[in-house]
Amino acid sequence: MEDRLVHMIKMKQEFESAKQVTPAKIQAVEVAMKDLRENMNNVKAVVDKQLGQEDKELQELSTKVNEIIEGEEGEWSKVVKRQVNKSLELVSDNIEVVRNNMPDTRAEADEQRDRKRRRNNVIL
């Protein structure tokens, strides 16, 4: 569109210089300007039509997305709740395993410390 505006400005300048030359050239420039205006109006009409269609489609899509989000909101909370519960169960199971292994690990650590102490004992 800017190209057309630049072109129109140039045409206007040519029009001004043509006024001085001949009335025939003036008439030709006027016809060209009229054509340019018509072309600009046609382009504007097409762009307005396309923008109107795009706006309508965006509104329809926005409405559909909002309906989906509102309809699934309850489902999303259920899904999140299930996932959180699964994660908590896994963590709880892992904590239980660690608790069960702690006495065995302590016993092994005590045994290793005892062996180390015995190695360091020197018989006098």
Q: Approximately how much helix is present in the residues?
A: over 70%
Radius of gyration: 42 Å
Overall average residue pLDDT: 81
Q: What structural category characterises the helix and strand content?
A: mainly alpha
Tell me the series of helices and strands, N- to C-terminal: HH
Count of the separate structural domains: 1
What is the general shape? elongated
Low-confidence stretches: none
Number of strands: 0
User: Between the first and last Cα atoms, what is the distance in angstroms?
Assistant: 105 Å
Major β-sheet profile: none
Strand content: under 5%
User: How many helix segments?
Assistant: 2
Characterization of the model:
With 124 residues, the protein is an all-alpha fold. It has one domain (2-120). It has 2 helices and no strands.
Topology:
Elements: H1 2-21, H2 23-120
Task: Summarize this entry quickly.
The protein has helices spanning 2-21, 23-120. By secondary structure, it is mainly α.
Key structural traits:
124 residues, mainly alpha, 0% strand, elongated
